[in-house]
Specification:
The chain has 500 residues and is α+β, with helices and mostly antiparallel strands. Helices cover 35% and strands 23% of the residues. The protein has 17 helices and 22 strands. The strands form six sheets. Strands 13-12-9-10-11-14-21-19 form an eight-stranded antiparallel β-sheet. The chain is globular, with a radius of gyration of 25 Å. The termini are far apart.
Amino acid sequence: MKEIKKILVANRGEIAMRILRTAKEMDIATVAVFSEADRTSPHVRFADQAVCLGPPEASQSYLDQNKLIEISKELGVDAIHPGYGFLSENAGFARRVRSEGLIFIGPSSEAIETMGSKLAAKTAAAAYDIPMVPGTAEAITDRTVAKQVAATIGYPILIKASAGGGGKGMRIVDSEADFDHQMDRAVSEAEAAFGDGSVFIEKYITSPKHIEIQVLGDQHGKIVHLFDRECSIQRRHQKVMEEAPSVSIDDATRAAMGRCAIDVARSCGYYGAGTVEFILDEDKRFYFLEMNTRLQVEHPVTELITGIDLVKQMIYIAEGRRLPFEQSEIGIRGHAIECRVYAEDARNNFLPDVGQLRAYSPPLGNGVRVDDGVESGMTIPIYYDPLLAKLITYGQDRPEAIAKMTRAIEEFVILGVQTTLDFCRFVCQHPVFLDASFDTNFVQQHFTPDLLSGQSTQDQRVVAVLMTQQLKKSVDAEHLPANGGNENKVSKWKQQRRNP
């Protein structure tokens, strides 16, 4: 076992702050890296040391493997935590980090490679008899064969990029007449996003729920699951809200999915924190989708219901320690919900927004957690993912968690850019969300921009609050005497103390 004494966090924003905080709690020295666009970001000041990587473009900063390795060796770093995105699922980077004598806080490069290809992942998982969506077991290149497969499976079908995720290179095909056009688009998107245009075909589940299982594995062969997360509130195949546990499955299904997730992890010799994703059809049958070999954006909801710090466990596992708990010792306590606060305009097809944060004040109170990496006065750059913060609430049950979320959204002050907060409040109040009958088609079926027209925007609410506060100050000032009202004034408590 090698003790980690200094960590470089190869990321930015809220996930950089999340990792840095846990490292400091563990008395581990920290190094932050930043681009010129992030020079004033909180994570730069929070770390013990910070180094500029270069220009704002990710290719010249956060994706510069040479610079990251160079900085790590120069500053005596023991380990690199990649967070999520950027180089977190780059097998070549994980391999190089280890070849340079450093610790990569994540899985082996072999596991990343296997699960990084959806087809390779399915092949590995098939040895454990994991339920799969009907479809091809290999990449499709011949259009004629592809159409024959689609006809056999039955429309609608889904064309998916073998590499990558995030909804890129994914196209729904409703009929053979649309096949060629959608195939061209899927291949083009896959090549542009991942440098790999290979695609495969599977049956499209028309009303699916997206459910994932968090797993943890050590380097000694022990793997446990930390239960499930419901991730069906999405736009453009990307998540906006998550909750744990899912209310869509019963205990028997939960246990079965947990066992399958552990088997998927075991199929590639997995260690570290990872997530196995499934879809659930209308008949409550679940199918394996893919495995994400990194820390997920939505990991806080799992931490809240299990009481386990996933970042801390990732560091311990990277040191070579054994998991300190058995599966039977992990339980579900309460309910947690997460809203991703993106700089996006839900009234304009969720298009990203940029600008200066004129005001930023996150909510407080019992059962409220905010993971963020921004502050008032910052300029939100156009170069990166538009995620500003994650708002997470925790309650004894789902209704309480929803009530806390609704209150917290109202208190969250963000001025200067449009955000997804109004959309998240809309979701929290929608009957389909409240009775948990929603699926991944929620946005298409239940949301249109005009539905937010009756709601006050963040700017309007904040201005109203500020005006009210100013008015109160003016009224208070008018009723105070010239000396401030303190002349010969004694509190009732002191009077009682003097005259028992």
